[in-house]
Amino acid sequence: MRPAMTTRHALPLAVALLACATGSGASRETSGGTSSSTARSSSTARGPSNPTSTSAAPASRTPAAPGRELSPRAQRLFAEAVATAEEQKRLKVPTDWETLERRWRAVTEAEPVPEAWFNLGLALQHRGRPDEARAAYQRALDLEPRLAPAAANLLLLEEPADPAAAAQRWSELARRFPDDAVSRARLAALYEGAGQHAEAWKLGREALLRDPRAVAAYKAMMRVAFARGKLDLAHLLAVKARKLDDTDPEIVAFVGDVLASEKDAPGAVAQWKKAVALDEGYLPARYALLADAFGKQHWEGVAEQARAILRSAPDARVQLALGVALRYLGKPDQALAAYDQAEKLGGGKLPEVHLARGVALMKSKEQCEPALAALRRYVAEAGPAAAAEGPAMRLTRECEQIVLAGRQAEEAAREMKAEAEREAARKAAAQPKEVRPTGTRAPEAAPQQPSGGPAAGPHAMPSPARPATVAADGG
Q1: How far apart are CA 397 and CA 259, in angstroms?
Q2: Domain spans of the chain, in order of start
Q3: Is the dihedral of CA 60, 61, 65, 68 positive or negative?
Q4: Residues paired with residue 11 on neighbouring β-strands, in sequence order
Q5: Check whether domain 29-158 has CATH 1.25.40.10, yes or no
Q6: Consecutive 10-residue runs of the chain (475 residues): their mean pLDDT?
Q7: Which CA distances in Å does 118 have to 140, 152, 240?
Q8: How far is the CA of 143 from the CAs of 111, 117, 146, 256, 342, in angstroms?
Q9: Which listed residue, 117, 280, 344, 353, has the most CB atoms within 10 A of its CB?
């Protein structure tokens, strides 16, 4: 993995300050003067009699073994392997390490040439086969103990994790090979990572005196200049390093860091994007772009960079940042799921996740009671002093008021309903009822007469007499 730069990019959240540090660990430089996931290593050896550098990022030259002659076949195979490497470099195409592995393996099968074993190890290392590369480097050293690049690359593969132990090993290698630039460049990086800038600068200069193309030395020195606030010098050293290796995203991202310190935000973003274009998995540039997007509240950009980082390295704070972006993008359910994942990744040691969850529940889901529980948990875990510096206290009071108002409204509604029920009962009780005398029968209904005249029969009633009509008088 490529190292993180010495600068740190703060990721300000809308609900909490989440510092996403890119770290300042010492880079795992190879004898090629650059770093990569497979550890770039030193120059391809041109042969026992005329060693030069042919790799994409050379740093040291393989010394010739005095008085050693190759058979005609081994010499021809060696020359063909070197020509293949030089042709790839001339065409500026990605190095075909598989082809180079076959070429150098053919040389070793023809004759035990230590430089060929070293170059075979180089190819194997770039192909992600460290155990085989280690065996090849060891074979080269067995054949030629003075082969410093093989010793350096072997140490890179076996470098102790403890910086002090690593520095001791590199110091021993520097004493063993006084003219070796790689060991001094690596020591410069270790001292720079430990904050011992004066010693790092001195070792970087010593490495460049031994090999002016030692990119690792330039990188250590540019970081020292940056730490000392000498931005112009840091930029200049980065430019020189980039001329030696224009495919190293660390150098490009470092230029972005320098421009950011010079308040050139657009220029910094452009450099970080170039670094990501060179290596999509280069995390320091991703973190820088994430912090920039957060500062601008560019939530689509935050989500994009957060997802890219999380594909390579699970990070609780980045997961939390993704959740905040999703909430602002109108996806509260996805945001809450991201907060759950952030809490899991943080191992319960990330109180900001409770604050973010409370905000989402309160603002997006309008669920104040669970929001209030989350906010109170944040205050309990972060501490009253930390919580007082952010929105937690204000949001808690606001949520408490909303919950209280809601409860009062519910109580008022229940009281109104109960009063309505009581009023209905009173009205029903006051309604008069029909009272009938005891023992009387209800009158029978009179029979209806059929239409068309008086009813015939013994009970028929006579029709009443009609009065005479009086003529209207015209007078």
Answers
A1: 43
A2: 29-158, 357-418
A3: positive
A4: 18
A5: yes
A6: 44 36 36 37 45 31 50 93 92 91 96 95 95 96 95 94 95 96 96 96 97 96 97 97 94 97 96 96 96 96 97 95 96 96 92 92 86 87 79 78 74 85 83 63 54 46 43 38
A7: 6, 11, 28
A8: 11, 9, 9, 45, 53
A9: 353
